[in-house]
Design goal:
By secondary structure, the chain is mainly beta. The protein is 8% helix and 46% strand.
Length: 248
Amino acid sequence: MGQPNRGPDYALLDRLIQLEKQVKALSTRDVLANSSITQGGLTVSGGGSVTVNGGGSINLSGGGNLNVTGGDIDLSDGNMNVTNSGSIAVTGTGKVTVDGLALSAVTSKSAGALATNFAVTTTRTAQASASIAVPTGFTTVVLIQYTQANLFLSGSALDYMYLGMTTTIPGYEASSSTGPAVSCQGNSGTSPAAGSCAPYQTVQNTLTITNIQAGTITVTSDVWMNSNDWPAETSNSVAIYLTAFFLP
C-alpha cells in the first residue's frame, strides 16, 4: 500500500516542527562551550562584561582590539595575551580586574622654587625649598633633584661658596649632598670676575627610595661660605627643581 500524498503544506509543517525542536535544543545549550573568539575586534558596551573562568584565555593577535566601554573584564585564573601590535582600550568607567595580578602604575609630580636677595654665612643654611606630597597607594619613589646658585660678593676678600641639598623623605632620616667648592672674589678683586663666583655652582642627583610612608618629600637648597659672612645682595639667587616618579 503506498504512502498517501501529503502535499506541500504538510512538508512545510514538518519543517517547522523540526526547526522548533532545534531552537529548543539551542536554548539550553552553551553555544560557546569549547570554542574561542578570534575577531579583529571585540566590543563590549552598555555595562556588559567578558568573564573568562577555568584557565580560559582571550587572545588578540594581528592587530586585534578589545574595546570595553562602561563594562568590566574579569579574568579568574585566566590569561589575556596581546601580541603583534594588538591593544586593550578601557574607557569611561570600565576597568580590567585580574585575580592575583599586581598592576604596576606610575605617576609623576614636580616642584620648584627660587630665592633671591639673601645673605650667606659660614653656616650651612637652607635658602630655597620645594616639596612634593606622596600620593596614596605608592611606596617607591625615584627622585631627581637639581639646584643652582650664583652669588655676588660686596667685599674684597677671596672666598669659596658651597652648595648642597638636604632631602627629607617620610620614613627616613634626612640625607644631604654637597657639590665642590667654587671660588668667589669680592667686587674689588680681579679674578674671578669682580663681585661674583666663577662659575655659578650646580648640584644634581637621583635617589631611588622604597617603603616610603605617607607624607611630604621636602628638599632644600643650602648655601654657605668657607671663610666669611656676606650681606644680602639682590643678585644672589638659588633655584631648586624636583621631579618624582612614584610606583606602588
